[in-house]
Amino acid sequence: xxxxxxxxxxxxxYRASLGATPVSVALGELVRREVGRAARRSASDPxxxxxxxxxxxxxxxxxxxxxxRLERAADSTALRRGDxxxxxxxxxxxxxxx
Length: 98
Known about the structure:
The structure is a single chain. The chain is mostly helical and 98 residues long. It contains 3 helices and no strands. It has helices at 8-18, 23-42, 46-81.
């Protein structure tokens, strides 16, 4: 068993953000992401690079979904305040990028 070294305030906020998800499951996901990050940075053989690429694509999809949600929330807040400014379009990735 490891002790997480964060303030009580940070730990409470983290626990609250988990909702019904057990801490063990959430911490397992954090470990999986860290292992994936290390694999992406050190992949050199074809199989390792393929796995790292799959992991990076999954992470990219998660980030894209987060960006979309945050853009909608920002647009919604701006509309309520009456100071709406459209979020600039991001340039499309080249087809061979993915």
